[in-house]
Amino acid sequence: MISKTKIAATAVTFALLSGPALADGELNIYNWGNYTSPELLKKFEETYNVKVTVTDYDANDTALAKIKAGGHGFDIVVPSHNYVPIFIQEGLLLETKPNQMENFKHVDPQWVDVDFDPGRNYTVPWQWGTTGITVNRKAYQGDINTWAILFDTPAELKGKVNVVPEMSDVIAGGLAYLGFSTNCNGNKEELKQVRDLLLKAKPDWISMDYGNVEKYAKEDLMAGLNWNGASLRARLQNSNIEYGYPKEGIAVWMDNVSVLADAKNVENAKLFQNFIMDPQNAAMISDFAQYANGILGSGEFIQNKDFATAPEIVMPEGQKTFIMPACPPEVTELYTAIWTELTK
Amino acid sequence: MAANATVKSAPPATSAAEAAAAFERRDTRNRWLLSAPALAILFFASIGPLGIVVVYSFLTKGGYGGVEWKFSTDAWASVFFTRDIFDDTLGFADAHLSIFWRSLRLSFLTTLLALVVGFPTAYFIATRPEKTRALWLFLITIPFWTNLLIRTFAIMEVIRNEGIVNSILIGLGIIDQPLQIMFTDTAVMLGLLYVYLPLMVLPLYASMERIDFRLVEAGYDLYANRLQVLRRVILPLVKPGVIAGSILVFIPSLGAYVTPRVLGGGRNMMLGNLIELQFGQGRNWPLGSALSITLMVVVMVALLFYVKNAGKSGVRHG
Predict the structure, then answer these.
(1) Which of A127, B82, B242, B296 is most deeply buried (CB count within 10 A of its CB)?
(2) Does B66 reach chain A within 8 Å, measured CB to CB?
(3) How far A74 CA lies from chain B's nearest CA (Å)?
(4) What percent of chain A has a predicted confidence (pLDDT) above 90?
(5) Domain at B90-317: CATH architecture
(6) How far is B85 from chain A (nearest CA, A)?
(7) Within chain B, which residues score under 70 in pLDDT?
(8) String of DSSP letters for B26-81
(9) Domain boundaries A2-128+253-309, CATH class
């Protein structure tokens, strides 16, 4: 009995002593699921003696809602470009001035003076990519460079399509397919047509879900709205998979590492922002999730040798692209109404 | 002497009454004090939060989630009605109604199936020799050691297009195209059944274990066949177990979140998912609150129905 108590006491003492000794501090990252390189975190932990914890989310809105609710305990969040202005405007981000950090010189100039954070006073590039179409060539051999795969699904793909439930991407795809402006289009007449298009298309879809690399690789899904890196990861496991660039226009996005206004570990969070702008570290990010990172000179450190020439990464010459900005509330309200009707 | 005695005895009598009253007061106070922790928990963990949910359902939704402190019945109106965004006509919120209906239907079917599968299982265990019963019960509880999410993903491995079921069926030449079970209502129901089956078996077993099996023998002695024994002797005796098991399966199924999320593919929403949507992507907390309360009312009605029915049939059989 005594020895048992003694052992327990020793264990507790040991835990108390060794706990703080293991790390100088903590860093709590709130990022998209299956998106953060474990090697990168390990390197950061070892370099700065900081214990890193990652929590997943699956949508910008989920992250926004949770952070707005407070009491989350996160230090870092990685919102997409069109959500950065909302986070800033709602006072949720800390102005960490990444543009004065040591590694800022590595950031590709085209990603410095961006609309959503001019001059980069808040955010640091994490990864950027496109939202296009993944198709398994075994199931369908026709043209895949069109939104018709989703909105006028070919017979071979009916009931095998997944659509990622990102409201703005889906509605933008519909707008592009019908030849309307994708720039926060609030034209009711045009949106009505988009709604009808989406409602007509939905019965041909099998699911509206995230986290699909596995399901494409294992052929639970044969086609769908997907991100280029996720499509590339699926192709690495299943060579039948191909990524389509809709000729009607494809959305370009960037996710950005930001420090939260109520972060408890601000210094560690700033260290992390600087850390990931180092080309060697940025390469680790891309090696895990297979998206481009916006850091110059990271290419030579990326281990996937096909990465530089991968069709998912290199856009075809003359590809029509657009960037979805953050839309004003009255437009968002229309989109949300369409979205609710679609996802019922 | 006698008068003296009465005079003398009067004061003690009143003080005895006083003492009794004081005792009673102390007793009441003690009773309140003793139940205070329970009442506090009930208030802070149950009634209080519920009150917050009710209050939120009558507020205006904030632009990016959250609420504005302005009274509004919009949330409650949009539980049942929807305004077309383009031609502004008012109609029934068939989106919500269809999700309610799907949840009720799937939960009911799950409960029914759990009963069909769970009853023989519980009967089997209850009729084993006493020594081995513990082992069988132990086997029933083993799945509980694994996280719900992992069990759900395991089901996915079984039913997916390249999963065990489809591989075997294709291998045997019974089908040549994989059966589409994933992402359907069937998948959700299978998942719910698997996850909640032990909740049906355990209460059924508890009430079967108490059966005096001499009654079954007596039934046979009185020329009842097996079906009659089951219907007239066993079922009435295990009725409390059937009711408890059905409630334990039905209610969590109705509010299920993980299973429809993983196996339903985000298209076949159930109430739990609809509510989550309002607090996340939908950015409509008041509507989420109103839907939560509606779900609770449905559960209450279901419970009352069960309890009332149970009482009635108990009398008839008793």
Answers:
(1) A127
(2) yes
(3) 17
(4) 77
(5) Orthogonal Bundle (1.10)
(6) 7
(7) 1-14, 310-318
(8) HHHHHHHHHHHHHHHHIIIIIIHHHHHHHHHHTEEEPBTBSEEEEE--HHHHHHHE
(9) alpha beta
